Amino acid sequence: MITCVVEYVIDPRRIEAFERFGRRWMELVDRHGGTHHGYFLPGEGASDKALALFSFPSLAAYEEYRQLFGVHPDFVAADRIRDESGCVLRYERSFMRPLLPGDLAGDLVAER
């Protein structure tokens, strides 16, 4: 499994648009082979930071999903929310390998 972590700098005045954007992407990830773990929005502290985490079974599965960007009408519509509202100022994407509770593979690596 591979987990994509997206760190956003958002316009706090446009949080409602960011929430619409996030809801749309959660649907798209889940519909196209991934598992969305949610968006994490400002609570206390910095009001312009947000995170999204979602996983795919493999990097290859993620790449299949990415091929729909800019092509599939639902993906284009989701990006339009971001682009027209200006709710996202910038973002950075990174990929991580999760270590989850009960993950025996992680325990085996630690024992070696």
From TrEMBL:
NIPSNAP domain span: 7-99
SUPFAM superfamilies to which the protein is assigned, alphabetical: Dimeric alpha+beta barrel
Domain of life the protein comes from: Bacteria
InterPro entries with a match to the protein in the record: Dimeric_a/b-barrel, NIPSNAP
Protein name: NIPSNAP family protein
